[in-house]
Specification:
The chain is of the alpha/beta class. It has one domain: Vaccinia Virus protein VP39 (Rossmann fold), CATH 3.40.50.150. It contains seven helices and eight strands, in the order ααβαβαββαββαβαβ. Strands 1, 2, 3, 4, 5, 6, 7 and 8 form an eight-stranded mixed sheet that branches. β1 (43-47), α3 (53-62) and β2 (65-70) form a beta-alpha-beta unit. The relative contact order is 0.17.
Amino acid sequence: MRETIPLWERPILHEVAGGTLHPGGFTLTDRAAEFIGVLPGWNVLDVGCGLGTTVSRLRSRFGARAFGIEASLKQIERAQGLPGIAQAQGDALPFGDGVFSAVFCECVLSLLQNPHEGVAEFFRVLQPGGYLALSDLCASGSPILEFNSCAARAIPLDEIPKVIEGCGFVIMNMENHTRLLTDLAARLLLAGGDGADCGCGRQGLGYFLMIARKEG
């Protein structure tokens, strides 16, 4: 019988993907931060920060004042007291308007109950001229996914720009990084897991990086 524990809370993903818990590790985190031009002292939020590895990366490599929110108490406990992390939902951020220079959301938007509300919250907490760095699964066609798969709510590829622009963002860049998803699936299988758990092994699923800006 397949485990009902979400993939992102299973030891096998921690072993294969490391603390980042998403395809590509820090590859897309660094690419996004460099594209945006994150500077020392910037207030940056990581939505769905998991173990806090992106928060730590943004602090150590880019000098940002990085913070994270995470819905799962288990993940927060595993973060072992990393400062600047709070329990909250991605579509109900506990911050005032316009307080962040950048918001990162890595493989989390597709997990939110209401992605539109989540993106609207990202827009709200960003200062004018602030950036959204979004990487996630996307669907093309109609992949058959089990309910417990973390790709079960993957947003159709052609709907993603509509969601982002509909909340007021201007899209600056969008890249296809499906190869990173395929690579994660292969490593999960080699480690004795099932790549289909995260939709990795199914046709009709991809992975993307998008950079968008709040004009002003």
